[in-house]
Amino acid sequence: MNRNVYINGIGSISAQKTFENNEFLNEFVDHEAQVISVVNPNYKDYIPPAAARRMASGIKMSVVASKIALQEAGLEQVDAIITGTGMGCVRDSEKFVSAIIDDDEQYLTPTSFIQSTHNTVGGQIALELQCKGYNFTYVHASNSFESALIDAKLQLELGEEHTILVGGVDELGEHTTALHKIINHIKPEIVKASQLLQSKTEGAVFGEGANFFVLSNEKQPSTYAEVLSVKIYNTLPKAEVAQAAIQFLKSNNLEVEDIDLVVLGNNGDVKFDSFYDELISKVFNNTQQVYYKHLCGEFNTASSFGFWLASKILKTQILPDCVKLNHVNSSAFKTVLLYNQYRGENHSFTLLKQC
Amino acid sequence: MGKGVAITGMGIISAIGNNVAENYQSLIEGKKGITRVSKIKTNHVNDIMVGEIAFTNQELEQQLGLSSNNNYSRTALLGAIAAKQAIKNAGIIDIHAYRTGLVSATSVGGMDMTERYYYDYLENKETQKYIEGHHAGDSTQKIAEQLGIEQSFVTTISTACSSAANAIMLGARLIKSGQLDRVIVGGTDCLSKFTINGFKTLMILSDTYNAPFDENRKGLNLGEAAAFLVLESDAVVKAENKEVLGYVKGYANANDAFHQTASSDHGDGATFAMEKALKVANYAPQDIDYINAHGTATGNNDLSEGRAIIRVFGNDVPDFSSTKAYTGHTLAAAGAIEAVYSVLALQHNVVYPNLNFKTQMKEFSIKPQLNIKEKPLKNVMSNSFGFGGNCSTVIFSKEQ
């Protein structure tokens, strides 16, 4: 009954140029900002212009990222669509709330209300694909994408479905950004991406993006990696992070020495990066480490970019210099561990294996 | 697989009662909780009716024993009240005794505070504590904390009006697959200006009492509510010698893939969801004794759902009714509210009347159950459909 789960196609729209699957961070955009936006593909290549104009940015990014992933997997249809998003199409939420207040509940139109519904992305992809299968949306902060991943994995392992589109998406909204600056969740100063971890200030550089993946029971030439295991925690005290990681490996019959690469969610927040230090300096001192939030920014589903990065490294066996966190060099990448948390909550561990 | 998923506890707060017993009493007495809105200042006050919970936020905070510097949205407050009731009802003393997870559903999240302090946040330090409470996962994190669930599987589902049904589904699958021993599942949504105005722009709010499956139905009444159920594995039930209230036997989610907000004329998604849920339960249509319909009383839903029911059940449509006339449409919480009502129906062998029905719909001849009906019930089907074409069906059974 226990079937393997493979990543057969990927699609990424991020603050780097990642929408071309035959490239791999060829040019590192070293953003200097408090908030970084995505590098947009030419949407007209994927969606009719009239349709694209009507779409919220989160929908547009997701529809295109999922098309790229499906195409690579050689599929026109999937059995199920599972989406993770922390905030949904937040610009439309802002638009609708401000219209309610500014115009005293008059002259409102439904479009922004409809697009503000959290599952509007999943619904829209289903409409595009005419996919009538299972369609879930998880909205649990930094564990939104991992929740989607766990659900997909459960179905594939039990043979309930055979191909599932899984993704994480969040978009930047102006008012939300302003509010997060006020409460110091966004850094007070402009930071150069390559210097993110040296900033020593509170808060993160915020970003956005959509990363979608085709997961399947069947391995094929396009396969990137196998998804071995995913585990989430609503809380995890700092002192327990190392033990939780070791326990997670153990439950998958692995030791620290079996890990060739650790992919970490450091975002340069001086208050919370210490959670990663538990693994960086106490457990995986002799293991190669990478980080990625200087490339994509911090957002609720930023870990889906980490998942994209790990998939690329496993398939190409190439590790771009811009993501290196330490000076250890692995000779080959076979088993990769990902760890992420946001502001000390909603921690996740993910294990990927080379195919 | 083939493992049972037992329901061992329930908690609820809605416009028709602050706990399970009060809700049941209102259901059998035909007492609806629909009034003019009193806690939200809106220009639409005379154009709409709602299912509002009587307690103020302050009263709910007191019941939970929260300090005055808490940053709970009303969604989180209602959710915490209902979830705590469920845990108590299940007789759980040590939440850590088994691998316990929480799956909650919400669509409004902390929007009630966001819309209140939207611009105020920029200047007022006092209210800024609510900024972090906006995102949908925040209410779930708070409910987990209230229940003492730590270092565990905790997540939030938001698929509009089918959300809580999907939370039940995920919880059942986590238990069946052996990933968890116990999952608290449910949903919570409070009333907000955001949803009132949103549904108003869609022109699907009734200005009077909503009348599900009536030819002259004028739309839905929004409601606020929270409900949670404790799902436990066979092993836990056996080890603890638990009283079982009912079982989650079947479930399915399908997508209509027709329109972002409207259901297809013939209810494809709804049909698939019901058929697939019957298959998962290994039941034939005639095994269903009562359908607690989604029945929002919008022109579109009731027609589409009615046609889908006929497609699945043919000439032999079981007793069905919608309880939205009592509570209003409680959005992401609706699937959990109606799960509690479905289990109560099984326990008491009763079919609730579909209130406010006067005129038969002309598109088909099926008629909801209009008076309270007592009969032995074995299996109850509950439907929940939402925006984004999201269609869910859960089947509850008395026996495993």
From TrEMBL, chain A:
Residues 46-218 form the Beta-ketoacyl synthase-like N-terminal domain. It holds the Pfam family ketoacyl-synt. Keywords: Transferase. It comes from the Bacteria. This is Beta-ketoacyl synthase chain length factor. It comes from Mariniflexile gromovii. The lineage of its organism: Bacteria, Pseudomonadati, Bacteroidota, Flavobacteriia, Flavobacteriales.
UniProtKB/TrEMBL annotation, chain B:
Residues 2-398 form the Ketosynthase family 3 (KS3) domain. InterPro entries: Beta-ketoacyl_synthase, Ketoacyl_synth_C, Ketoacyl_synth_N, PKS_Beta-ketoAc_synthase_dom, Thiolase-like. It holds the Pfam family Ketoacyl-synt_C. Keywords: Transferase. Belongs to the thiolase-like superfamily. Beta-ketoacyl-ACP synthases family. PANTHER family: 3-OXOACYL-[ACYL-CARRIER-PROTEIN] SYNTHASE, MITOCHONDRIAL, POLYKETIDE SYNTHASE-RELATED. This is Beta-ketoacyl-[acyl-carrier-protein] synthase family protein.
